[in-house]
């Protein structure tokens, strides 16, 4: 029973020590890391990055939907152009042959209609080509492009360092407990100082990488918004 009480007391002591470290650096979370140490500016940085990540992902999915829709429209439209051109050819063929014995009114009308239909289908074909080159291709290139992937990799690296920092907070709290129990042992104090130094180093790297990731993500978000809007206007 005494051993169980002693273990419980040790656990409580470690929790209190951890809370002290968390209070020292602030509290926050990112991804699956619920207890990552942060200060207020880092929390804002993380929240900004999280919003940018969601924004760029949603825009990427929308761009992909537009590409699929345009490609489907081109396939269907091309079939309609093919049917329209066949109708044009048949009409002009009837008009040229002019087999009617009592006049040429229908033949002339068929010829005019066939030529007009041919022009309409030519315009439709040009429009479909433009949809492919001016809408689908640029959007597809951006969906598959390096800038978005590079920005995401930066965000993922930031997340990993944040988790490392979270683990280092636990290590610092453990070292602080040992210092209190060691009655000023210099070796124990040195290990605490080394752990605290590593924590500060991780924090510095994390903030630097976070700012870099936010900058890259914001640039991608702006490009996504501008390009997609331009392509939608082009389709209008």
From TrEMBL:
InterPro entries associated with the record: AH/BAR_dom_sf
Keywords: Coiled coil
Coiled coil region boundaries: 185-212
Protein name: Uncharacterized protein
């Amino acid at each position: 029973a005494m051993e169980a009480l002693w273990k419980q007391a040790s656990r409580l002591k470690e929790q209190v020590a951890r809370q002290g470290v968390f209070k020292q650096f602030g509290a926050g979370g990112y991804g699956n890391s619920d207890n990552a140490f942060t200060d207020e500016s880092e929390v804002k940085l993380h929240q900004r990055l999280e919003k940018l990540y969601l924004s760029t992902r949603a825009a990427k999915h929308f761009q992909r939907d537009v590409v699929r829709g345009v490609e489907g429209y081109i396939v269907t439209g091309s079939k309609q152009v093919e049917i329209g051109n066949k109708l044009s050819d048949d009409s002009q063929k009837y008009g040229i042959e002019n087999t009617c014995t009592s006049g040429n009114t229908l033949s002339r009308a068929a010829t005019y209609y066939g030529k007009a239909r041919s022009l309409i289908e030519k315009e439709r074909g040009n429009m479909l080509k433009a949809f492919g080159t001016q809408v689908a291709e640029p959007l597809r290139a951006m969906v598959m492009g390096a800038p978005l992937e590079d920005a995401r990799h930066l965000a993922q690296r930031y997340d990993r360092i944040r988790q490392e920092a979270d683990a280092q907070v636990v290590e610092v709290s453990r070292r602080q407990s040992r210092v209190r129990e060691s009655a000023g042992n210099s070796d124990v104090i040195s290990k605490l100082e080394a752990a605290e130094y590593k924590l500060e180093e991780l924090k510095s790297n994390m903030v630097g990488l976070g700012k870099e990731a936010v900058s890259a993500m914001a640039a991608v978000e702006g490009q996504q918004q501008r390009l997609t809007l331009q392509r939608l206007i082009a389709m209008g």
